[in-house]
Predict the structure.
Amino acid sequence: MKPLKYYLLLGVGIFGISWGSILTRISGAPGYVCATWRIVFSTIILFLLFGWKHIDEIKEIFKEKLLIAFIAAISLALHLLLWMESLSYTSVAISTTIVDTHPIFATIITYIFLKEKPTRIQILGLIIAFIGVIILFSPWKVDISGLYGPILAFIAAIAEAVYLSSGRFMRKKYSIEAYVISIYSIASIFSIFYTITIAKRPLFGYPIKTWIAFLLLAILPMILGHTTMNYLLKYLSTLTVSASFLAEPVIASILAIFILYETPESYTVVGMAITILGVLMSIIGEEYRKE
């Protein structure tokens, strides 16, 4: 049996991740700006804490694995930029549920590029998850503009799947500190470029409350959340870590009820349950394939 500390860290990690959507809303800033400062502050903090210890590894990554690092970093940046922007157009419950369908797209990517055929339970899970996503998109509503947020979260889920798939090879060789500092550094540069030139959002001129939210976004969901989960992949099974991500929509939705006074509609709850079930089946199917 694994030491209890790893499961406690797992709880801490998923709790940290669940604050991402809440802090983005609290900040009052555009999602693109929140994502950019989240990555930038995370990079600075991690480099100051661990960078000097792993400088040789970081140099090696940039020298020998630059292409894979670049793909992973751009995918991570797009994931955060688009998902956090989606929160301006749809509810926390819908956005977080859709973005956490990334294991489904990881299965598809693995099949396309590695020719690893999905198991029957994965295929069934994919179908069920997409039924849930369709419900969350609520196509029966007349207002087409309401689809913008879910679409952004959907693309963000695909980007995260690319990020996790491309980074899987690097995490086997390099320490978690060197890996995340390298990826976050490239993602920071891309995010700044994207926000200023493509999204055309100002990076400065926000009140102190907003800057505190930016800093908390780096500390809670990024460092305490994502970085902790990456660390735990060395000690816990992929099934355990991946399945724990499915708690994010639930925890975030509960936080949104009490902090943002945002209660999900009945169809949203149904869509969330169906989507989470489908994603869980896909994750379990991946474990069966490894056995």
User: Anything to note?
Assistant: The CA atoms of residues 195 and 201 lie 6 Å apart.
